[in-house]
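Narrative summary of target 7.
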Amino acid sequence: MSREANPKNQNELKLEIEKKVKDAKADKQTKTIRHNRESYEFTVISINRDWLYFNIQNDRTLSAIEEFIKEKKLDDEYFSEKNTFNLEQQRNYQTIIQEFVPSEMEKVFHKTLDQRDPIYLTPEGIVANGNTRLACWRKEDLFNQVNCLVFPSDFSGDWDLIREIVDDQDNAPDIKTDYPWHARAKRIVKNLENGKTYDEIAEKMQYNNMAEARTHHNMLKLAEEFLEKGYEGFSKLSDLNKIGSGAGLQVFQTFAKSRFANINDRLDTKIKDKLSAHCFECIGTGNQGEFSSLHLAVQNIWSPDVIKRELKLLGDSPEVPDILGGEESPSDGGDYDSNPFKDSDDGVKRKKTHNDFLDDVVIIKERKSDQAKRDQYKKGLKALVDKVNNLNRLSISDDMNKEGIDEIFDNMLKAIEEGRKKISELN
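Modeled conformation, tokenized:
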């Protein structure tokens, strides 16, 4: 049922939109949208869906178009903005974005026969928000005439501002298609190449803060490094969908936060390489040992106690430098194996190496947990002493209510003696 993309001639389409915008303004068919405390007037028009152009730099498909270019051996600039109005690129792009149309979207549109939300259109006829829906309508032959909100003419070519505004717009939950995290991270790279800072990127792309934007960039670096390892079934970013929900969002987020944490900057590269290798092995083989998820496996691989163990191995000394407290990492480590899987051809040996390491991680985790339990009573008592000292210092005054205080002191002393008695009876 899919219809091949066949948009209207670029100049003719622009003139058609200008005419429709003029008529709509005369009929007061406009909508005001606020963004960053500014108001913008959009024009409401209806136009033939087949005349329109996809935004071939749509963030949702940045990973997919790179994979298409590589597979077809095309020029890196094949899907650049300058080629937006080329028929060949539009048709190839439609084959790509149709893969992003969820079945739920098709069902909803067929059931309701209602477009419901308008799509956002540039004055030139490029779809700024609604590319996936347009692909769905063409594929299913729905809504020949579609409702659009046209950006003001002075937005022409200002894709930074266009993306900011459309990112504010949210489709209904039952037809929404989320951007893959790695595709959005590709946009971070493009913004960095254009001289943007992480602060600016976070604001423009609606990450919570600079740190989150940086983390997603680091996640992409790790994902691309992972793909270079050659794990079966993982050759391109879209293969990350095989990891599970969110294309490995949580596991790569945990990995990036640990691997690039400021506190780990002082770690010897050999240790970081070794821990990273085991993380990649978890992700690439699905072998997460006794941990209930890849995320937890990675989190524990980078635990402070595992790092202390590795520091001891690297330095070949019983004295473990307090890297987490600011001391320098040992620099010799001549016998330290930073590449545990160098004998990758030996699958049995490789699996045993990884399993033995994960077993060590589990033991370290359990030992830490047991120690915490053993120290729980002592830590609780210390906290009580600190609280009593603070009460003595801050709350005793001439006008305090002293009624019943002696009884409370007696009960405290009884509780202390009871504790002493129970501890003295322990073996």
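Residues 170-176, 316-321, 326-331 have pLDDT under 50 and may be disordered.
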